[in-house]
Please model this.
Amino acid sequence: MDRRTFGLHLTLDIENCSPDKLVDNKFIYDLLNSMPGKFSMSKMTLPYVVWWKDKWAKTPGLSGFVMIAESHIACHTFPERRYVFFDIFFCKHFDTKPIIQYVQNAFGSNKITANTIERGRNFIK
Model:
């Protein structure tokens, strides 16, 4: 990891999630609301969570977002596929493992694909 980059963007593709959690507005809200405090992030706003139904879907999913001083946390659920996409852009370097484990456990998943992108490679000289 290059410490001269601005920060990390962690993307999580989470499969085989608990179907009930993917349609639980309160669960998504509470998860987004509590994560910043658990991982030394500075929450700037309360989470915003909305229902969304894709053209091809029969069941609406939830999309949620919370702004943190260091950037943002966002998620998008797809109940019919038992899938959630989760992004954390944090303008600092951080240990991704505890966050990955926390989110995977929260959704009751047995399969997760994590990708880390170093952002701002030319931002810090």
Residues 35 and 41 are 8 Å apart (CA to CA). Residues 8-12+14-115 form a domain with the S-adenosylmethionine decarboxylase fold (CATH 3.60.90.10). The chain has a mean pLDDT of 91. The longest helix spans residues 25-38.
